[in-house]
Amino acid sequence: MQFGALILDMDGVLADTEPLHVSAWDITLQGIASTVTGAAPSASELRAEREKMTGMSTPEIAENMVRVFRLSVTADDLLIRKRTIFRTMVNGELAAFPGLHEELVRWRSSPLALATSSARFEAELILDHLGLHDFFDPVITCDDVPKAKPAPDCYLLAADRLGVRPAECVVIEDSAHGITSALDAGMKVCAVSRMQPGLFRGVLGIFPSTVEALKWLRS
Question: Does 9 qualify as catalytic in the annotation?
Fold first, then answer.
C-alpha cells in the first residue's frame, strides 16, 4: 500500500496498558461518595461508565465521571489521584507487544508519528519504559491539542508536523474513539482488535495485533 506517513496510537497499540489504566481508575474512584445519594457508586457501575470512555483523555474521563455520578470531589482531584497511581503501576511487568520492536526497526526510514490521548508525562514514561521513544517523531499528546480523541485534533497536528496531507496518512488504532478521531481527520485506519468485523466501520482492516497490521502495510 502506498501512503505518506504512519501514525500509531499508544495505549493498546504499543503495549497492553489498558489493564493498568483500569486498575488505576478502580483505585482512584473507590469509596468516593455521590453528592446526591451520599453513598459511593458501585465498582461495577463506575467501571461500566468508564469503559464507554476508552480512548478519551484522562482529564475528560475525570470530568465525565464527576458529572455522571455527581462525585463529591473535583475533576482536578480525580486527575491528580489517577495520574499518581498510574505512575506507580508502570513497572517491569509492562512490555511492548511481542515482535513490535523488531517490526518498528523495519520502519526506520518511514515517517512515523505517535498520537495519544494520554498526557505528555504518561507518554514519555511509557515510551521510555518500553524502549520505543526513538522510533516516533513527532509524539502528539492531549497536552498539545485543544481537544483529545474522539476529536481529530491530535491526528491533524501529527500530519501537520510530519509535513503530509491527512489523506496521505495511515493510522493504527484500537479504540472506537481513536478510530473516529482518525477517520474524521480524513485518514485511513487499521484497527487492532479481536472484535468482530463490522463493529469498526470504515477501516482498511481489523488485525489481531499491531505487528500483523504493520506487516500487512509493508506487504
Answer: yes
